[in-house]
Amino acid sequence: MRKILLIFIALLLSLQPSHSLADGGTSVNRSNSITTASWSIAIIGQGQAPSFNPYLLTWNITAGTAYNYFSYRNLGSITLSGFTTTISQTRVGAGPKNDVIFEQCAGGSWNFTTNACVNGTILFVGQGSDQSIVLSNSTLALGAEIQMRARTPARSAYIFTTLLSTQVSRGSVRPPLTINS
Amino acid sequence: MSIGKKNPWRVIAGAAIAISIATIAGQSILASLNATAGNTVAQNVNSGTLKLELANAGNGFSTTIANLAPGDIVNRYVTLTNSGSLDGIGLTLQATASGASTATLLNDGVAPSTTKALRVTVTSCPTVWTIISGGCASPTVEIDNVTLGSLSTAKPLSNSAMISGAVRYLQIKVALPDQNETTVNGVLPANTVQGGSVDVNYTFDLAQRIATTTNS
User: Fold this and answer.
1) What CA dihedral angle connects A92, A95, A96 and A98, to 10 degrees?
2) How many separate domains does chain A show?
3) A60 lies in some domain
4) I need a labelling partner for A39 at 20 to 30 A (CA). Which of A161, A171, B34, B183 fits?
5) pLDDT digits (tens, 9 = 90+) for B41-54
6) Are residues A31 and B63, on separate chains, in Cβ contact within 8 Å?
7) Could you list the residue range(s) of the whole structural domain that residue A154 is in?
8) Cβ-based contacts of A37 with chain B (< 8 Å)
């Protein structure tokens, strides 16, 4: 009899509801998305894709002036108001390093055959062998490019390379905004 | 009549009486007096409702907050209404990220990382906000500058009670703290806040008022 009673009590307890009290509440929800900007610039050779590595200019000058052409491209999501290029030179043999002159064809494009700036104005950007050059007045919209020319005069027979590396920081994009909408 | 002899009719009568009593008792038929009283007009008993409604004021939550740069602040505005008949208490806000959300936008970086995550501030105004300027004569901060990730656990608003019919005019401020990063040769730094995205589901929750016992 006692066993039967215990079994009955156990069955009764197993049938109790998991929530003995009702929860009174209500909710409402909405969703939206948030994205952040990116600032990024890369040097691209003629007809090449970005390598996301420092860009190497190779020089082998016997006479006259040697030219190299490349572009800066804005790969980010926001307009840039300037950026920095660090240049460093490695040469074969002894002797002083050769300055490289960097120029921009503003409003036009370079003719790679005649080395002329067609329908544009040549702007001096910087000159040196090992230093940082700041392009502070070059506004670059998303996906836009600045076509650059690097040139160096011959001084005897020079074989050397110039390595270019770009840096762009938060200060090169627009100031902070407060938007109410 | 002779002495010593029983009257047979007395036996029969006694038996009849006994059988009658037994029959009556067995059928439980007892006569009694009854009286009733009640209301002549039916009493109405009804239950209350608890209902929270959310409407965008301006863009509210309806459009993406896009291309935030460090230091940017975006203020969105919503109107929350207790449109039920019951008072509510314990108003909370929860914000949960879904999908492939960028971790650096949810929580601050751990050293040596110095990234700062998105911050959320909820401010209420007793009247409708002037959206174009973000103006309010007497604003009250309800949730103060918390990381988006910390809102994965519901946080109570400082004024968490909403009586029936109450309307709360809320400003939801989303900010990306000012911070500097340098991109080299087109490559974003590790653990960056740049180029990130997060899909957020905002939930306002209101509990019913405490149950009461009324004597009247």
Assistant:
1) -40
2) 1
3) yes
4) A161
5) 888 888 888 999 99
6) no
7) 41-172
8) 67-69, 194-195
pLDDT at position A22 = 44
Dihedral sign computed on CA atoms, order B125, B127, B131, B134: negative
For the B52-179+197-208 domain, the top CATH level (class) is mainly beta
- In this structure, what CATH number is given to the domain that contains residue A83? 2.60.120
Residue A62 pLDDT: 80
Per-10-residue mean pLDDT of chain A, 181 residues long, equals: 64 45 79 96 92 93 90 96 90 80 93 95 89 77 94 79 94 95 96
- Asked whether residue A93 is domain-assigned, the answer is yes
For residue B199, which residues of chain A lie inside 8 Å, CB to CB? 31-33
Instruction: Specify the length of chain A in residues.
Output: 181
Rounded Cα gap, residues B109 and A166, in angstroms:
26
Our CA-based measurement puts residue B178 at a distance from the nearest CA of chain A, in whole angstroms, of: 8
- Using DSSP, state whether A12 is helix, strand or coil: helix
Domain assignment of residue A12, yes or no: no
Tokens of A6: 């215990």
Per-residue pLDDT, A74: 96
In DSSP terms, A74 is beta-bridged to: A41
Whether the Cβ atoms of residue B108 and residue B119 lie closer than 8 Å to each other: no
Is A14 inside any structural domain? no
**Lowest mean pLDDT segment, chosen from A59-63, B5-9, B32-36, B56-60:** B5-9
B120 has which bridge partners? Answer: B146, B174
CA A130 from chain center: how many Å?
22
Nearest to B187 among A25, A36, A52 (CB): A52
